[in-house]
Recover the amino acids of this structure.
């Protein structure tokens, strides 16, 4: 039988996929709401997508009505964090029960009688008896499908939790000892045979059954699944960064304006998208940034993205007021970046907050005074609403290296915008703003980025209508790029932005922790610690508790390093994130990240230290154990 996919609705296509792609790994995803309510949901569209950094993906869908967002989506979107727990036979019934709907204020761990285990980095709890769990922070979310209601979430794994008996030499997992449960169509399966190929050269093996597995239980005894919409919806993105990639979504009170905050830092970079685009257009560039100590903030302008139902007016003043409200809510200094028509919005906002706007970046900018194109030209742009073919043609004409996948996503996003919104937005950027007729009120640092092959925002237009309005702007041209330079050449544009940020962001002061490392004494660390401080580290096999023990460990560890440099430090509330690079053992390179949590008195109550690479971790741990012999039991340290 041959089936034309174009003739299938979502339900029938879903049935064909889940009945054909078997078995599928199960991710039992735990999240927590902004109000602190825990949630669990099984997701069978789950796989690994990257190694360095380790990445997993989950594909999420809305409820059966095709519109309503599930709690898992809302939690991932608003917190930027989740945990994927693997499911074995003893948890199968509870896992199945978590597929059914609970009210948002119900803690599903409690409702299902499951024990929680706190995570080390993310706020979402782990399933206590899960054999393997991945703590994840959102890296990116990709809307897919004709109506953009399904979303692929990429999560960067920041912590692996593996049951001790499953962890073998060289980091392998004892898969025969892991009675993992997978997904078929409307049923489940048990991974109970392991074999090698070609046939005859390997022996099929049955996995060992853990002691807590019920005797005689098989996957066939599980209750058939009656829930067709069990895969929750998710959206929100983060990025691979040097410090924290935590992402959460916040809303401006009494409005429909929501904004995503990705990363942590004392400074913010606010991104404003352009005509026919949405906030996700910045994700490729954000993923390429290397500047630490900043958080990246994106939002949808009224009428675009997730706000297509917003009513007018669609004017520069309205856009600037909404972006300005986000800048106000951040409560910290910021650099603002705008593209195309969004560059005009960014300038207006920077002018509103001259004391907090540290810099202004204009990417392929439309002049604030407008382009003043004649009606016969503007009719083409005004009529783009809902016309995917026309939008594709315009984007193709104005770009030089826009990947097909990016072009498809932009067209889908752009065609969702209502035709009347497109008309008003086109008139907005063509007619401009009165402030564009005079020198800019923003007098801080300015970077202008233009695509070399941009046939709309030409070098002449920038030289005559944009640059002269600023005192001393930097102007750079990106090769093999058109009007969407940030999408066509994200690494190059990110590099320009990183260098600009390095010039405008103030230096971050050193902390008591870094000073203690310089002194290399137990007393120096003792002054920084609360009495009940705890220490977790990759060089330790278990948590060290109490000021006396922790200070001894840290003082001894500091003497092993030949050199140690703290390259970045970011403070967000009670947490500090420090990135460092070191050498030991006569030149072995070691680097990592330290996360410190302080109490109300400013003393450290929790320290978590991640070293890499693995070989150096084991060597460092063994040496630390030797130096602390008689102070701390040998079982705290890796051997060899």
């Amino acid at each position: 039988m041959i089936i034309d996919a174009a003739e299938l609705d979502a339900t029938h296509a879903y049935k064909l996929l889940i009945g054909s792609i078997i078995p599928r790994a199960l991710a039992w995803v735990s999240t927590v709401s902004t109000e602190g309510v825990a949630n669990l949901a099984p997701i069978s569209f789950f796989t690994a997508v990257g190694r360095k950094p380790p990445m997993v993906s989950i594909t999420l869908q809305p409820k059966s009505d095709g519109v309503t967002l599930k709690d898992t989506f809302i939690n991932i979107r608003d917190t930027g964090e989740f945990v994927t727990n693997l499911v074995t036979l003893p948890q199968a019934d509870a896992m199945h029960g978590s597929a059914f709907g609970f009210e948002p204020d119900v803690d599903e761990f409690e409702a299902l009688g499951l024990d929680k285990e706190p995570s080390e980095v993310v706020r979402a709890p782990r399933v206590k008896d899960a054999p393997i769990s991945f703590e994840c922070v959102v890296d990116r979310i990709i809307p897919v499908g004709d109506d953009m209601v399904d979303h692929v979430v990429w999560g960067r794994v920041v912590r692996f939790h593996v049951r001790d008996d499953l962890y073998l030499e060289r980091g392998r997992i004892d898969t025969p000892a892991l009675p993992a449960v997978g997904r078929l169509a409307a049923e489940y399966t048990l991974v109970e045979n392991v074999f090698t190929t070609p046939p005859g050269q390997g022996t099929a093996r049955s996995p060992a059954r853990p002691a807590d597995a019920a005797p005689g239980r098989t996957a066939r005894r599980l209750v058939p699944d009656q829930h067709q919409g069990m895969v929750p919806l998710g959206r929100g993105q983060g990025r691979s960064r040097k410090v924290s990639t935590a992402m959460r979504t916040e809303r401006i009170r009494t409005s429909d304006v929501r904004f995503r905050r990705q990363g942590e830092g004392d400074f913010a970079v606010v991104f404003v998208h352009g005509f026919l685009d949405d906030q996700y257009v910045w994700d490729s560039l954000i993923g390429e940034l290397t500047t630490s100590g900043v958080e990246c903030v994106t939002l949808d302008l009224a009428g675009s993205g997730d706000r297509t139902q917003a009513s007018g007016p669609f004017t520069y003043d309205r856009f600037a007021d909404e972006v300005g409200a986000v800048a106000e809510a951040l409560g910290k200094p910021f650099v603002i970046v705008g593209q195309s028509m969004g560059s005009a919005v960014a300038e207006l906002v920077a002018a509103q907050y001259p004391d907090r706007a540290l810099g202004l970046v204009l990417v392929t900018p439309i002049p604030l005074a407008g382009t003043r194109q004649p009606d016969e030209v503007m009719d083409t742009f005004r009529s783009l609403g809902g016309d995917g073919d026309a939008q594709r043609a315009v984007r193709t004409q104005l770009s030089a290296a826009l990947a097909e996948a990016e072009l498809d996503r932009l067209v889908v996003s752009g065609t969702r915008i209502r035709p009347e919104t497109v008309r008003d937005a086109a008139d907005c950027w063509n007619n401009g703003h009165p402030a564009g007729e005079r020198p800019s009120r923003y007098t801080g640092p300015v970077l202008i980025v233009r695509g070399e092959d941009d046939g709309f925002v030409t070098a002449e237009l920038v030289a005559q209508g944009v640059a002269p309005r600023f005192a001393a702007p930097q102007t750079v041209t990106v090769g093999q790029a058109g009007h969407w330079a940030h999408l066509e050449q994200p690494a190059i544009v990110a590099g320009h932005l990183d260098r600009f940020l390095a010039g405008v962001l103030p230096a971050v002061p050193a902390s008591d922790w870094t000073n203690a490392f310089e002194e290399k004494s137990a007393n120096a660390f003792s002054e920084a610690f609360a009495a009940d401080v705890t220490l977790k580290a990759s060089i330790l096999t278990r948590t060290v508790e109490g000021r006396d023990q922790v200070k001894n460990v840290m003082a001894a560890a500091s003497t092993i390093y030949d050199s140690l440099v703290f390259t970045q430090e970011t403070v967000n509330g009670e947490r500090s994130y420090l990135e460092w690079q070191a050498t030991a053992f006569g030149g072995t390179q070691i680097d990592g990240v330290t996360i410190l949590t302080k109490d109300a008195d400013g003393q450290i109550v929790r320290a978590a230290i991640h070293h890499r690479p693995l070989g150096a971790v084991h060597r460092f741990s063994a040496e630390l154990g030797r130096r602390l012999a008689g102070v701390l039991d040998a079982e705290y340290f890796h051997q060899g």
